[in-house]
Structures are given as structure tokens and as C-alpha cells.
Design brief:
By secondary structure, the chain is mainly alpha-helical. The chain has 6 helices and 2 strands. The chain has one domain: Four Helix Bundle (Hemerythrin (Met), subunit A) (Up-down Bundle). The mean pLDDT is 93.
């Protein structure tokens, strides 16, 4: 399968800067991460009413696992230098609109994990919306993964 052309120069720049690195062999298979994303999403769904903050963070984790699965399937992974933001940049460059909520989930997850103000917690409605967005990202990744070749 040919390498994904959309966003190719952005991915090359992320590799050159050390924010992404190449994988080989069994590591270049995103199927396992995509399955994990689906499980994480179900865990998030189960926590919405009881623990909205955790449900939100888990919804983001599921989305991140799904998009990281797409990168892995291309033989790519983020480095500690690039982290979650490199994942966002790579996904935005390559897959665009189907994954546009990923950045908003990442930023809000940071606010929940590192609060600046007491009481800035996720509501049940916000957590439910995050789970919906995470689910849409997981579904989109499931539809794309088989179209991806090694970068």
C-alpha cells in the first residue's frame, strides 16, 4: 500500500524535528492500539455520571489511542519531545476534518488534569459530549486504518 500523501511535508518536518520517529516490524501495526481505544472509550462511557472528569480524560485517551494507531500503522510514533501535541499536528495535517475535535479534547484534558481554578471540573454533559467526540474519532480511525501504508 502506498504512503498517505496528504500532509506528507508536515509529517516529514515532524520526523526531522524529532517529534515523530519511524517504527518497523510488528510495532508498525496500529490494530492493537485501535482495539485498546475502543475499550478505553467504553470505560469512559461507564464513568460519565459517576466521575465526569475521569470520563472526559478517558474519552480523550481513547481518541489519542485511535489517532496514535493511525500513526503506528504508518510506521510512526510520537517521541517524548513531540508528545500529544505532535500527535494532534500529525492528525490535523493528514486527516483534517474527521478529527477536528481532537485538539479541543486535548486542550480541555490539560485543563482538567492541571486546573488553574478550583471547581473547574467537567460536567456530566461535557463528559458525555467528550465521549461522543472520542467515539467519532475512534470510528473514523477504524474506517481509515486499512487505507494506510508505511510512511
Amino acid at each position: 500500500m502506498a504512503r498517505w500523501k496528504l500532509g506528507e511535508s508536515d509529517i516529514e518536518a515532524l520526523i526531522a524535528s524529532g517529534e515523530l520517529q519511524k517504527l518497523t516490524g510488528d510495532a508498525a501495526n496500529g490494530e492493537r492500539l485501535l482495539k485498546k481505544a475502543a475499550v478505553t472509550l467504553e470505560t469512559a462511557r461507564s464513568a460519565i455520571d459517576r466521575d465526569p472528569d475521569s470520563a472526559f480524560v478517558l474519552a480523550y485517551d481513547a481518541a489519542r489511542q485511535a489517532v496514535t494507531a493511525l500513526l503506528a500503522h504508518q510506521g510512526l510514533r510520537p517521541t517524548t519531545k513531540g508528545g500529544h501535541y505532535a500527535v494532534e499536528r500529525a492528525v490535523r495535517a493528514q486527516f483534517g476534518q474527521g478529527f477536528r475535535q481532537f485538539g479541543a479534547l486535548r486542550r480541555r484534558r490539560n485543563e482538567l488534569e492541571y486546573p488553574e481554578r478550583p471547581g473547574d471540573d467537567a460536567s456530566v454533559a461535557e463528559a458525555a459530549e467528550a465521549v461522543d467526540h472520542g467515539g467519532a474519532i475512534v470510528t473514523a480511525a477504524e474506517g481509515l486504518i486499512e487505507q494506510l501504508g508505511l510512511f
